[in-house]
UniProtKB/TrEMBL annotation:
<feature type="domain" description="DJ-1/PfpI">
    <location>
        <begin position="120"/>
        <end position="192"/>
    </location>
</feature>
<protein>
    <submittedName>
        <fullName>DJ-1/PfpI family protein</fullName>
    </submittedName>
</protein>
<dbReference type="InterPro" id="IPR052158">
    <property type="entry name" value="INH-QAR"/>
</dbReference>
<dbReference type="InterPro" id="IPR029062">
    <property type="entry name" value="Class_I_gatase-like"/>
</dbReference>
<dbReference type="InterPro" id="IPR002818">
    <property type="entry name" value="DJ-1/PfpI"/>
</dbReference>
<dbReference type="Pfam" id="PF01965">
    <property type="entry name" value="DJ-1_PfpI"/>
</dbReference>
Amino acid sequence: MLNPVHVQIVLFDGFDPLDVVAPFEVLHAGGTATGGAVSVELVSAEGPREVVSGTGGLALRATGGLDPARPGVVLLPGAAGPLGETPGEDGEPEPGSIPVLLAATLATSLPGLLAEAVGDPAVVVAGVCGGSLIPAMAGLLEGRHATTHHLGLDLLDATGVHAVRARVVDDGDLVTGAGVTSGLDLALYLLEREAGPRVAHAVEELFAYERRGTVWRPAGPVPAAF
């Protein structure tokens, strides 16, 4: 019999909807396939509220507050908006851009809650796309291995993280996914890791989607340069 696994997907202002909905559907299906052993909910640092995404004003409702002490998985999505590569006339990043939205989370209670989660061995912290940058920019992932959207790998590396160019990176109690659609791959891998390959395969078949690429882990011999 499987041990129960609860996943808290964290909403914040400007989140990317696909980073949330894709893992939610995969993990919810995993709950059905396991008879309820896997459960998933949408939360926010502030508690129950309507949270507006960065895509066309689409909002989702957080039904609870993030509990960093609850065993299971805390999953962070990235943000949606302009890339913000060209500063405005005042030299500041473009308002509403992805860097601004991600940086804004650092002024909320989220970093403190994440610090508790990162420090709890019973909690796995996961990130999709820019979601891995939030704890990294908060100084919580120094020396760890992680990935993010390919356009954010340099920033991830600058925070002291060993940035890995892979679709999914498993660093023990830190599991991260790369670009936006990798939320599907990340969630399927979490299902395989927590509930077993047969459950993950059944959900793959249900969604007619096959997880792509090799999950990178800091194990095995270091490959020679090509």
